[in-house]
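Risk register update: the risk that structure generation would not scale has been downgraded. Supporting records follow, first protein first.
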Amino acid sequence: MKFQLLFCFTFIVISSCIQEVDFDVPASIVKVGINCILVNNEVLEVVVYLTCSIQDSLEINYITDAEVNLVRSDGFKYEFELSNDSAIYLSDVPALHNYSYSLEVNYNGQIYAASTTIPGAIDDLKAEYDHGKFFDEYGEDLTHMVIRIVDDPNEANYYQMFILDPSYTDPKWIYNFWTFHNISDPILIAESLLEYEPLGFIFSDTYSDDGRIQIELLGSLPLHNGMPSETEIIVRSISKEYFNFLRSWIIHYYNQNNPEHVNVIDDLDPYRIFFQEQPVPLYSNIKGGTGIFVGYNETRTTFKYVD
């Protein structure tokens, strides 16, 4: 009885300390957003939109009456038309590597501008693996992977690397951070933001004097007849603008409150569904607005077995 009385008294005291407070949430600042990723030998797509508050982020406010101008460094001007659903500005002429590009969007008398490049393809990409020489803490075989890149030493080169999982039919399925065992490669440690569990790796040739880069990984890859299945690797040569954006995106994505990182089913804070840590401003190179204008060139190869 005494315990019940004490519990009721404690509950009343705590409840009396709770006070509802009304306050005005500051209105979000609406900006013009522009997104365009140039891919070598692919047609151009430009999305122009108005930003919105995080509460209204499920709906995109497309801008369909803007004037889009894109010029290649050799003077070629791309022409754009709206897609059938009036959401994307399309050009049927593909982008080409080894050029720089300037983008201008005129909307309501305001000019929004950005520039970027599509780097040339990697001069040489080799991917090799061996199996049965390295083991994890449980005695299971690990696959030892070596990736060698040769590129122009006179240029500042930036990369994004994916290793595809052959056990899935979806060609976009890639190995996540946890597939690899105790990543110790100095280039990836220095530049790939491993503490944020990236999906894929970003790095540059900052630590190379001759354009040659070697990366080593240990991983638990699916086996076929005791050997790793045929595995494909993608290495993208990306513009500096894309590299800067990805550095901000990796942290931003990690901080989003998704099931991969944290379980908040019982969290009483409704805004925890958006972020598990402080929000991270995303990099933008759009002058006067927000968004990205970036480019990349993709090289693929398959891992070869070496004994």
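Supporting record for the second protein:
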Amino acid sequence: MTLLLLPFFKPPVFEYISSLHFIDTLFDMAKIVSFGIIILLYISEKKLSRIMLFITLYQVSLFFSTVINSGNYWRLLVSCGTIISFCMITELAVKKNCQLYFKSILNIYIPLSVLNLFIVVMFPQGIAREDYYGNVYYLLGSRNGSSPLFIPLLIFSYIYSGMSNKKYTPMALFFTIIVSASILLTWSATGVAGLAMIILFVLLIYGRKISQLFNSLTLSVMYIAAFFGIIVFRLQYVFSFIIEKMLHKSITFTGRTDIWDIALKLIKNSPIFGYGVYEGHGLIFVRGQYYYAHNAVLEVLLQGGAVSLFFYAAIFASAAVSLYKYRKQKPAQILSFGIFTVLTMMLMEAYSTIWIFSLPVIACYIPYIAEKSEPQKETLKTLSNKKYLAYRLKQR
């Protein structure tokens, strides 16, 4: 399993150091081989799951929009293939041996995270620089780019801890310290907010009875309310003290409101299929540069229109339904809040990584994870044995 996963874990910095481009090429070649093997393994299962159907249709809709808008669909094929194949191996691995899946990923990324922190401390100005925006890069990404990696991995560490019958293991605590130091030293407000949400949830709510109130249904309602409140109705002006004094951000979220206004106008001009996945640095031109939408939903609408948004929403809705059924189980609780945290972060950024899509895949197979947690076994037996067994048989 580890060999199949490794090609997906290329440190982003290799793309920005010309002398290391050959490593970037080696990873891409290995990814092609891994992709082929994963596809064969998945086909051998003789069934396309609902969550994989939605992820595939979402990627296909982006591809279609890109083709009809004369975009670079060859480059998009690489991205689509990467996300689909990683989600496939995630599904297969969680069904076969979820404990090994999380252990393999953490065994790779904990040492890489330690090395990344060392680089952050020793080279605060980064070891590579992206020319257009001037973003500096460390081993595992830029200031804003590393958060969508670290936060899902933190969630993985707490899920894995639950399989060891503990709220958090020494490994999870150590990883939390490393991730916290990396995010705080590079200071991305979005990353800091996401980190604070996860840590506060684990310390104050996770594992307690009150955690059932923070289930996927209530959290979905909270996210939808936040999206319309902040992006559409701009209620953030009411919380100007928190935004400006505590997070050190302007009331416009460093100019994001201007970008959202332009994005909404562009979406109205092409609401059904969007503009495709474009090359360069985004579609929105403001203040002399091109930008992405700085919001996941707006970016999906820009790239694939309402068609892509339908499948995108279906992905997370499927996860929410599965998590709500098992809301009394600790793995479902940490995963529900973890997905909510990532979605909240994506109110300000437009992440589209393998980790973002792997979370709903894992959520749809939460029973496989819950049964590995020893204290949960008796509870699982009292749920609805017929319903649980039917779920397991359906997923095979």
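The CA atoms of residues 66 and 276 lie 4 Å apart. On this basis the risk owner (M.S.) recommends closing the item.
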